[in-house]
User: Which sequence fits this backbone?
């Protein structure tokens, strides 16, 4: 059996074993769903479904993070070295929290649940509510001046999306309304452009991108864009928020129109400012597209995932 066939079987196995983020058997057809333009307040709405395991792209156990430094409260840190030094990274904190959530579902051990809540509480305490009224988590250091030129403090669509994924799960485990209301307030960051402190970028073709590195360079990093979409879907699935679904669908439409821009014919691009994807990220692109196929049921993403995986032959 060739690599493509083996990978398809692995993905099918993940799907059967519960790779979807939630319990619902329904998928969203972005072309048949009639969405109202008005935002829906979901903070007082009951959950329509409980989210299950976070996506299998995050399959590492909490022990994977054991080599990272932590602060005095047990919040994970990243040591970047050099002038940046040791910093809080909202993506790392969120992914560690989600790994603990997955471990809690698998084992039922309260230690994992408590670790998730600890990281979620840090996120609550360190949110910044912007002048526009939405919540963000800042990176307090400059980043990649040559490609993205992010100036502190800057925000990331990837972290915004993964923070939502953490907060929704924390709410479902505890019933604490502050997690849900913060997750809803975070949606606003996807509605405002970089100039207003958000992560949204609309290009000359009208395509809506959510920027992993939200700066005027508009790097349009692919994996961060898709992670952001998965966070939006994690908010939509249990709340049935039309606001979140609108934001999700806008990104899906962009991917369907512009995914070809990331395809070199024999590999993928990491971003749209000229960075060829390292092999790790090329493989990640394939896995993320499979996740989008599972969520949307759209064969477009399945076909692209298998096409890109074939480049590894």
Assistant:
């Amino acid at each position: 059996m060739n690599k493509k066939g083996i990978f398809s079987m692995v993905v099918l196995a993940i799907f059967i074993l519960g790779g979807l983020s939630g319990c619902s058997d329904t998928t969203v057809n972005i072309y048949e769903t009639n969405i109202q333009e008005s935002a829906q307040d979901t903070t007082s709405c009951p959950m329509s479904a409980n989210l299950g395991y976070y996506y299998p792209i995050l399959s590492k156990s909490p022990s994977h993070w054991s080599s990272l430094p932590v602060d005095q409260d047990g919040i994970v840190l990243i040591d970047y070295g050099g002038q940046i030094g040791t910093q809080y990274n909202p993506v790392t904190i969120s992914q560690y929290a989600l790994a603990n959530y997955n471990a809690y579902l698998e084992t039922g051990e309260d230690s994992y649940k408590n670790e998730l809540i600890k990281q979620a509480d840090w996120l609550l305490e360190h949110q910044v509510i912007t002048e526009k009224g939405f919540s963000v988590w800042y990176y307090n250091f400059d980043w990649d001046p040559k490609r993205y030129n992010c100036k502190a403090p800057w925000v990331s669509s990837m972290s915004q999306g993964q923070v939502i994924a953490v907060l929704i799960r924390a709410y479902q485990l505890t019933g604490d309304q502050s997690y849900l209301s913060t997750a809803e307030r975070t949606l606003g960051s996807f509605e405002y452009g970089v100039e207003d402190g958000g992560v949204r970028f609309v290009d000359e073709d009208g395509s809506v991108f959510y920027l992993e590195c939200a700066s005027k360079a508009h790097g349009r990093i692919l994996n961060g864009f898709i992670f952001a979409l998965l966070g939006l879907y994690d908010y939509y699935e249990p709340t049935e928020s039309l606001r979140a679904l609108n934001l999700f669908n806008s990104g899906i439409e962009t991917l369907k129109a512009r995914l070809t821009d990331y395809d070199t014919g024999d590999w993928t691009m990491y971003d749209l400012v000229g960075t060829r994807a390292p092999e790790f990220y090329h493989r990640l692109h394939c896995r993320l597209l499979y996740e989008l196929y599972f969520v949307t049921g759209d064969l477009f993403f399945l076909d692209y995932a298998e096409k890109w995986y074939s480049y590894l032959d």
